[in-house]
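User: What would this chain look like folded?
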Amino acid sequence: MEQYIIKGGKPLEGEVTIAGAKNAALGILAAAIMTDEKVVIENVPYVSDTITLLKAISNIGATVVYRDKHTVEICGKGIRDDENLAVDDEYIRKIRASYYLIGALLGKYKFANVALPGGCDIGSRPIDLHIKGFEMLGATTEIVTGGRIVARADSLKGAHIYLDTVSVGATINIMLAAALSEGKTTIENAAKEPHIVDVANFLNTMGANIKGAGTDVIRIRGVQKLHGAEYSIIPDQIEAGTFMAMAVATRGNILIKNVIPKHLEAISSKLLEMGATVIEYDDSVRVMADGKLRPTQIKTLPYPGFPTDMQAQMAAALALASGTSIVTESIFENRFRYVSELCRMGAKIRVEGNSAFITGIERYNGARLVASDLRAGAALVIAALAADGFSTIEDIQYIKRGYEEFASKVRELGGEMEIVDSDQEIQKFKLRVG
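Assistant: Here's the prediction, encoded as structure tokens.
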């Protein structure tokens, strides 16, 4: 089984280029099958989630061609338009964003049969809001034997949809279905994340009529059909934030390229409170830390608040700040599963309810670790790079879901990190790096 082996203790320095946003890519790749014309998507992150979704799209009849590692050509013309069309295989059940295929297929064919999704076990992420939106557009939905959702409609008609809670997934899914419905749809209390805007911009490039993405009210006027397009995905704010936290935890100096600094403001502000230096440029940020880190308080909130997907990585850095920090998780209930692993490295963290109370330590000690989910895994990498000695991290398949060439990028910054799959390779690594 593959795992990371890391020798920590070195400040990371240099430049790193951020890949396309995974969360935007998953919505955009699903939307690409909504036209029978060719779609070319650039800046697609080459991570397991996008690879899996593209396999599922190909399996239902779409043509998928990689022009290069980050450019994909998709044509949905060959998708079977009948009730035998089902998206259900062992791969698609592993990713949460498979549910975007429900909205895309329902919008285009007025029928969808998709396996209920998996992904990281970070808490309850029900799709009741998705179902509510589809049904208000005129679809009927049912959960059938085998864990699949079937949605069908004679026609979809625009509706006024109020989301009881802010949901990124439901906002995107309803937007996909409504783009090819009859009349006008309004989504109130919509999510405002950058990848919502990116999916809306992509749909508009294909001929959709969507306004208000990035605000809490999105207005969609349905069109009869969508056409081919070329589009480039925005940079990944969470990958960028991960390297920002990594620079601070290791007391390094990293120039993080191919970013949109505005998307990183919530992260930057907290790093500044911790005593780090953050310098913004047009499409990059430099993050430096060389002295003692100060504690701070973080509460995760929907965008533009602090992103839940950066909570674990920041906690890993805050465990090295002098004083007591409080991190409160208000989005998912199982997002502190990484705490026990950090404590094995010497961290002093106490979890009470949905808050973690972190008392800073001087340094981590290397340990054998297990990643429980994608962002928890990234937090363990940060801690291992800042630790004295060697660490191994198992279950890195979670980390590969969202980080492209993670070990290679860390090595380019001077970090000592490799993927190994045997004790013999671990010993070779230890002998080589001393």
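Confidence is low (pLDDT under 50) at residues 119-125. If you want, I can go into more detail on any region.
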